[in-house]
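Q: I'm a student working through a structural biology exercise. My instructor gave each of us a protein and asked us to get a predicted structure, then write a short paragraph describing it. Mine is Formamidopyrimidine-DNA glycosylase catalytic domain-containing protein. I'm not confident about reading structure output yet, so if you can add a plain explanation after the tokens, that would really help. Here is the sequence I was given:
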Amino acid sequence: MPELPEVEAARRAIEDNCIGKKIVKAIIADDSKVIDGVSPVDLKASLEGKTIVAANRKGKNMWLELDSPPFPTFQFGMAGAIYIKGVAVTKYKRSAVKDDDEWPSKYSKVFLELDDGLELSFTDKRRFARVRSLENPVSVPPISELGPDALLEPMTVDEFYKALSKKKIGIKALLLDQSFISGIGNWIADEVLYQARIHPMQSASSISKEDCATLLKCINEVIKKAVEVEADSSQYPSNWISHSREKKPGKAFVDGKKIEFITAGGRTSAFVPELQQNTGAESAKAAGKRQQVKVQKIKHNDSDSQDEEPEIEETAAGKSKVKQRGANTKRASTNKKSKESNSDDENDSDEAPKKSGKAKQNKSSKGKGGDKKKKTRGTNTAAKRKLEESDDEEDTDDNDASGDDDDSEQDKDQNLSSKTQSKGKKTTKQMAEPRQTRNKPSKKQK
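A: Happy to help. First, here is the predicted structure for Formamidopyrimidine-DNA glycosylase catalytic domain-containing protein. I'll explain a few features afterward.
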């Protein structure tokens, strides 16, 4: 990804080869994602016939200053690059365009031909770059929102320390924030943190003033060296971690020390754990939280093995209530069985009055169920009612409970018996007693 050194190399190449020359031809790609806020026709019209006065840069953004506005601005994104035919712009991607290369490239977004025959092209294969046409680029976003340029506007140690002390995010994430300091990208951030021996996840506010001074020095040295060699990575010092950033985990080393990769600031980050340790109050606090979570997980697993899982709930007063699932489950099971047993008993006791009422309504046609086979059809209904009223309450309930046919009553008793046997001996005993009472003749029958 092009960062400050790559964009600066492109700016210098234009400054050295294109200043004072007139644009005689412009070809703009019909790509509304890259050509932002202006139509290809309007951008073409704003370029042709204009003279290039200067090439400017801030952070990763570059713009051409023409003899009259608007000015074309280039935000390089992840794969933006400037190529000048016959001129080696930067070895970040490749050197000068060769005779057998496609020209202009199919990825060209802006192609310019100058009055001396020189041709240049801004290309973007990934389509994350942006080309705009602005009256005053420095007064509007994105350039107006950028922080101080890491090369052109270096901070003092006091300014840098004061700025970091207000930030409680990881130092790498802060360095990648273009509104804090512009021009630093992923590989530069990894390099300066390695040179300063600071962990990428170290909280910015926890860095000492001494370490801040070291980090600021490393930022200046790394960027100046990269710009000096025109972003040619083969000329970077051998002790830079950038030489091994592209290697696979387990095979990446610098000065004989192992490089590991983590995600910091949303980007893959290379660092050396042996030299870059996460220290400071914020780091210790975060480590304490992780340890606390780990202990809670261990307790949780132990309780599972005992069939009792503690569940911690924070109440409004800040107290903790511990519930044991195993105990609750056992208690709930006991309550359920008790309710089922009571329900069966209630159903059995309620069945008799319902059947009795039904039997009284149908006495004219059915009579007294179980006694119907023993008594003649000519039995007086009024006499039977009189006899029933004279019986005591226990016998009346027993006789009324036998209001249905013996066959249907026996089937129900068998079904009921099978259900109660599965619920326990106690329920079976309770259900067995009414059957014995039903079979026992009443006092009047005797």
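A: Here are two points you could use in your paragraph. The two ends are 108 Å apart (CA to CA). The longest helix spans residues 325-361. It's a good idea to check both against the output above yourself.
Q: Great, thank you!
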